[in-house]
């Protein structure tokens, strides 16, 4: 991925992670709204996985690019 595409993808995924973390920062959320808590927990895990995957893929592509450039 070109850096700008990588930055766009990871920026959105980072924003998603931060959004779900902020939602889960409410210590009373689980007691007030268990469904929202469960959904936010699931969404946070998904967003973290997607971000990690995108970063790993970008790193692999960068290593391949560097190898090809010699």
What would you say this structure looks like, in words?
This protein is mainly α and about 70 residues long. It contains three helices and no strands. The radius of gyration is 16 Å and the shape is rod-shaped. It starts with a helix and ends with a helix. The mean pLDDT is about 90.
List key phrases describing it.
89% helix
Shape category: rod-shaped
Strand content: under 5%
How many β strands by DSSP? 0
Percent helix among the residues?
over 70%
Structural class: mainly alpha
Order of helices and strands: HHH
Largest sheet: none
Give the C-alpha Rg: 16 Å
How far apart are the termini? 19 Å
Give me the number of helical elements: 3
Mean pLDDT, nearest integer?
Answer: 91
pLDDT under 50 segments (min length 5)?
none
Topology of this protein?
Elements: H1 3-24, H2 29-32, H3 34-69
Helix pairs in contact: 1-3
Short recap of the structure:
This protein has 70 residues and is mainly alpha-helical. Helices cover 89% and strands 0% of the residues.
